[in-house]
Amino acid sequence: RATKSPTSDEDCKAVLITIKKHPGSSLPAIAEAAGIDKAKVRKAIAKLRKDKAVTTAGKKRATTYALTQVA
Predict the structure, then answer these.
(1) Partners of 54 in the beta sheet?
(2) pTM of the model
């Protein structure tokens, strides 16, 4: 059985930079712009959402991502 690989900091950083440049992007668009596999982007976004660095809008395939606004 394959073990789950942890999300790399480089993937998270690349996803954050891409979302900053292209707020409101979908997961496939982020993956293409960052040049990262969709599965890795999905893991990175999950980690960033847990850390409250990224917010979502929409549901299912219409989900878009943006950086959390700091007050």
Answers:
(1) 67
(2) 0.85
